[in-house]
Amino acid sequence: MKKIGFIDYFIDEWHANNYPQFIAEATGGEYKIAYAYAEIEPEGKMSTDDWCAKYGVERCYSIQELCDKADCIIVASPDNPERHWDLCQIPYRSGKRVYTDKTFSLHKDEAKKLMDLAKQYNTPVCSSSALRFSKELSDVAKQDIAFINSRGPGNFDTYAIHQIEPICCLLGSKATRMMSIGAGQYASMVIEFEGGRRAVMSHYGWTGMDFNMTVNYADGKTVIIPQMTEYFPRFIKAMCNFFETGEILADNAETVTIMGIIEAGNKALANPGVWVNI
Questions:
Q1: Is the distance from CB of 29 to CB of 58 less than 8 angstroms?
Q2: Fewer CB atoms near the end CB (10 Å): N or C, the chain?
Q3: Adjacency order of strands within the sheet including 188-193
């Protein structure tokens, strides 16, 4: 059995509370979250000790201790990506396979520096939105796409990655500029790609809407994806396959580019109706 070390900003959050079962089911018990480290213990959240007792995990009191003991590593902090820079410093020097949860970084330059750090220490690393692995997305032809209309729940800060990554899977990562065209709490962006191809991504808050998209081709063909399904089980299998084989979930250069789109998107939100270069 391979033992995974789980690093988080705080441990009582959705990913940490579900990954132990997801991983056990996906691998038939071949992989297990065996060690955990959390940076803080917010008031109102389960303590790290209680979480470890609940999930049968050994608590580590430093990131170095966890990296020394684990066979492979997950750096979580999914809703606080600004902590990834600090949380990844020791794992990315470990030489062990490290998956970093979405969103990898809020800044393109920081993302590139982290990838360069891992390369310097021969540490295999990767990051991805689970939506990359939706069953429906794998069946969509990528050739000659002209326009994508993508829709989903949540806000831009936390959930943009879940629309941007599928868009880039289909259109590539050569995005040139973007503009905020939404209103109020409903963030909406138009992203322009090389060759004049475009995608519109819209966030509808917590309205119960699932992720979906319409893909339009240069020849007039349209493919409608009413719902993205099976993405988490397929993602967990891909992550564990990375731990087993070293086959990364997404090209690191593409991940850096996607972080650049998120950074430009935040600038666009502050300047509605103005094109912002990526």
A1: no
A2: N
A3: 222-225, 212-217, 145-152, 198-203, 188-193, 175-180, 276-277
Closest CA to 188 of 196, 199, 174, 197: 199
H or E stretch covering 205: none
CA 36 – CA 11 distance, rounded (Å) = 8
Strands (DSSP E) along 9-102, which ranges?
Answer: 31-38, 58-59, 72-75, 98-100
Give the residue among 65, 70, 68, 103 at the shortest CA–CA distance from 84.
103
Give residue-wise pLDDT tens across range 146-178.
Answer: 999 999 998 888 899 999 999 999 999 899 999
CA distances in angstroms from 97 to 71, 205, 240, listed in the order given: 8, 35, 10
Q: Which residue has the tokens 């939100």?
A: 269
User: One-letter amino acid identity for 1?
Assistant: M
3-state class of 41 per DSSP? coil
One-letter amino acid at 14 equals W
Could you read off the pLDDT of 171-219 as tens digits, one per residue? 998 999 999 999 888 899 999 999 999 999 999 888 778 999 999 999 9
